[in-house]
Design a protein that fits this description.
The chain is an alpha+beta fold. It is built from ten helices and 13 strands.
Length: 330
């Protein structure tokens, strides 16, 4: 392993740099950014720990780097914002080489290139435990235009972007049937290289349709409950309308598993779940058709005690929040 300063220099030298709002770059005690007038700063942070968020048996170092940034980009997308600058913290565990860290950063920079994010610094330390990664991302949005979870109203359409559940099915495949990976490349890629819905979030922010919006990091059930509680409404989801990719449906059939379980509780899709008025939904669907975005209506919002229900064949079942949780009560 290289010394700390040589390692940091090597990890940063290949980063892409965007924009002219960077006043003080890497090399000082802190970076300085000059926000534009009339825009609000968006801040988000996320952590990934080896064995909890990723396994070396299922993820290449490049995939880990991509996913670290993509998870944060998705949070900015859910606010209708544009991602801008990132700070990266790395606690390097035993068994990780300089070469592997450089590959991890190469994947991070691929994602940075895709979403025009500039890495402006961070910190690197050694730890006797597993690898731990932290990333803080800034973004911006026009003043007063940030989207929120609390904007759902009775009568709204509940929608999702893309095909949630693919990432969880991909993880199941990589853990239990890795020799099937070549048969289901979409599921593998969904888990290793998720694609946040930044352009969709920005259009929803600019369009004036005022959606409630959440990114799907912990499964549709958990994200729907967060919207319901923040907005004070009841969300009714119809599983038969869930958009399943062909690969997910085929993999579920071959393994005897229920695909809606991955949709509701899988997580790490980094797509968007939201609600929107019927008129807004029609405008959104038309725009999606023009731009080749895949969006699907999966339910509705109603008056009632905040929560989420599943409706099948006219019968409703109260849905527990589901999704991954790091801590439980008790």
């Amino acid at each position: 392993m290289k010394n700390e300063f040589a390692l940091i220099a090597d990890l940063l030298k290949r980063r892409p740099v965007f924009g002219r709002d960077l006043e003080v770059d890497v090399g000082d005690d802190a970076a300085v950014i000059a926000p534009e007038p009339g825009r609000s700063l968006v801040l988000t942070t996320d952590s990934m720990a080896e064995t909890v968020h990723f396994l070396r048996s299922t993820m290449e170092p490049e995939d880990i780097g991509w996913k670290l940034l993509a998870s944060n980009v998705s949070d900015v997308a859910a606010m209708g914002g544009t991602p801008r600058h990132a700070l990266v913290g790395v606690a390097v565990g035993d068994g990780w080489t300089s070469g592997e860290l450089e590959k991890l950063y190469a994947g991070l920079y691929e994602c940075a290139e895709a979403y025009k994010v500039t890495v402006v610094g961070g910190d690197t330390v050694r730890t006797p435990g597993p690898l731990v990664l932290h990333l803080t991302l800034t973004g911006d949005v026009p003043r007063g235009k940030a989207l929120r979870r609390s904007l759902a109203r009775p009568g709204d359409v509940v929608f999702v972007t893309g095909t949630p559940g693919d990432s969880a099915a991909g993880l199941d495949l990589l853990l239990h049937r890795p020799d099937w990976s070549g048969r289901y490349p979409r599921l593998v890629r969904a888990h290793r290289r998720p694609v946040p819905s930044v352009e969709i979030g920005r259009w929803l922010m600019k369009s004036g349709v005022d959606p409630a919006l959440n990114d799907i990091s912990d499964g549709v059930a958990r994200e729907a409950r967060e919207i319901a509680e923040a907005s004070g409404v009841r969300l009714v989801l119809e599983p038969e309308r869930f958009p399943l990719s062909r690969e997910l449906a085929d993999y579920a059939a071959r393994t005897g598993q229920r695909p809606e379980t991955w949709v509701l509780n899988g997580g790490e899709d980094y797509l968007l779940l939201g609600t929107i008025s019927p008129a807004g939904w029609e405008a959104f669907r038309e725009e999606a058709g023009r731009r080749n975005w895949f969006v699907t209506a999966i339910g509705r919002a109603e008056d009632g005690k905040p929560g989420v229900e599943l409706e099948k064949n006219g019968r409703r079942t109260l849905l527990e929040s589901g999704g991954y949780q790091h801590f439980s009560d008790g």
